[in-house]
Sequence to fold (165 residues):
Amino acid sequence: MPNFKLANTADTFMIIGILVVAFIVVYSSGIIKKNCEDDITCFKEALNECKTAKLISQKNNNVYSYVIEPSFRDECRVLIRLERAAPGSATEFKRLVEHKDMECRIPKDRVTSEFLDDFSTVIDNCSGDLKEGLYELIIERMYTLVVKELTGVVESAKASVYKQF
Fold:
């Protein structure tokens, strides 16, 4: 009978050991993400340490989701998604960026929470449909401004040419 209890105790310790190792692996792998919901301070703390977390945030009435993914390299991986464009946004804006996402791979020594307010600080480290949509919007607006300015220049040039005749 004593061997039975000893074997049973050894099995119990083995099972506990396996469960502890499994817990450590799951926790350190980032499978379980801290859900900051809409608490920006919570997310910024996780970001500064590059620990997995999720955040839903509003900026200019647009709803964004941010997810810090597990990373074992020298970079912090953050997924950014425009969940919903602000009510009344232009159709073109919605078409190009709504429900689009981008993955940003920010070097850990350059990780700051500033990009939550200004994408331009990290956009060079990102890729994906959201980045492409943002760039397309920028190009369209630049084109519109250039054409608008050129119209004034052309009219001015015409006027000066017509004065000579």
Q: What stands out?
A: The longest strand covers residues 75-84.
